[in-house]
Amino acid sequence: MRRAITLGTIAVALAVFLLSPRFGRAVTVHNYRPDLPPDSLVSCWPLPDGLRLPFAYQVRRDRLVGPPGAERRELLVQFDQIDPVTAHRRLADAVRAARAPVRFVVRPLPLPPDQAERYVVRGTVLLDLPPSRPAETPACASPYTTKDFPPGLETAP
């Protein structure tokens, strides 16, 4: 009896294993983010002419703020592998070189002083920018690129 149960269990497990590719796979919808240059979100909503962020970063938030007609662009990025003083100096030099109408605030993350070198992200920069127009590229028109999903957007079946 024990042998029959063991063989039955093995047979069921083998059947599930062999048949699962036919029944248990998710259908791909191919709604992937398209290949973009490294500055993807900032490329879709360009920075003022000549300004580039002079350090490795991730965009955390990019939005328009303020009353209609007097909006400003608020861009929040995290900077990587440099200290806040270096981030401030590099960005100040870049803003000066571009002659851009930009204000910014650099904030360090509250990292343990003796372990700061272990962390990649070291702080944030909040940039106050003039509003910009979206780039006229097909990739930038896709909410899957910009992560700016309109209300009611349904996912593909």
TrEMBL record:
Chain intervals for the UniProt region annotation (Disordered): 134-157
This protein's name: Uncharacterized protein
Protein source organism: Nocardioides fonticola
